């Protein structure tokens, strides 16, 4: 029984059914735009992601009927002809690492929430903000990377575009 619970907790953010607690409530909106130049496709990806704000959370979801975190990222990038795996741990191996100071819109941002290592993913949108599909409040939303909850759980970023 314990082995089964540990295996479930180490899976991707939502496919395990585990609910990371506590998720913070969203911080204020309106971060300053990133001073970094945009990469081709980065703003297109973020535009697609932001258009999905308010979409409900759905365990294992990967379409506008409902998303888990990695399904959200997979769906958004697919709209721009970039195929990604569904599992957070596999997405964490795609592309190349990006230092936090070099984040630009469209970069994938990874956090440790339900298990050690990358277990949650979002998409950088510029400034200090990212968009993701958390399970706690049940909808795609924007958060600040500098919020204490997220900054303490940051494990890395990847560039796939």
Produce a short descriptive summary.
Helices cover 24% and strands 19% of the residues.
**CATH topology type:** endopeptidase fold (from Nostoc punctiforme)
Across the major sheet, the strand order is 3-8-4-5-6-7
How many distinct domains?
1
**Uncertain residue ranges:** 1-12, 14-38
Task: Report the radius of gyration as a whole number of Å.
Answer: 14 Å
- Per CATH, the superfamily is endopeptidase domain like (from Nostoc punctiforme)
Query: What's the helical proportion of residues?
Result: 10-25%
Q: Measure the end-to-end span.
A: 41 Å
CATH architecture: Alpha-Beta Complex
Shape: globular
Oligomer classification: single chain
- Number of beta-strand segments: 8
Question: How big a fraction of the residues is strand?
Answer: 15-25%
N-to-C order of helices and strands:
HHEEHHEEEEEHE
User: Biggest β-sheet: count, sense, barrel?
Assistant: 6 strands, antiparallel
Please state the structural category. Answer: alpha+beta
Please explain how this structure is put together:
24% of the residues lie in helices and 19% in strands. It is α+β, with helices and mostly antiparallel strands. It has one domain (38-159): endopeptidase fold (from Nostoc punctiforme), CATH 3.90.1720.10. The strands form 2 sheets. A 6-stranded antiparallel sheet has the order 3-8-4-5-6-7. The longest helix is centred in the N-terminal third of the chain and has 10 residues, at 42-51. The protein is globular, with a radius of gyration of 14 Å.
């Amino acid at each position: 029984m314990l082995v089964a619970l540990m295996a479930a907790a180490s899976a991707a953010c939502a496919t395990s059914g585990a609910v990371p607690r506590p998720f913070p409530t969203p911080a204020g909106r309106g971060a300053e735009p990133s001073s970094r130049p945009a990469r081709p496709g980065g703003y297109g990806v973020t535009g697609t992601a932001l258009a999905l704000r308010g979409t409900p959370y759905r365990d294992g979801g990967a379409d506008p009927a409902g998303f888990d975190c990695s399904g959200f990222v997979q769906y958004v990038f697919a709209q721009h002809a970039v195929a990604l795996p569904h599992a957070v741990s596999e997405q964490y191996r795609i592309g190349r690492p990006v230092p936090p100071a070099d984040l630009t819109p469209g970069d994938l941002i990874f956090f440790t929430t339900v298990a050690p290592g990358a277990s949650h993913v979002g998409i950088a949108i510029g400034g200090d903000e990212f968009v993701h599909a958390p399970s706690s409040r049940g909808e795609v939303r924007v958060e600040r990377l500098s919020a204490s909850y997220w900054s303490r759980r940051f494990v890395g970023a990847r560039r796939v575009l």
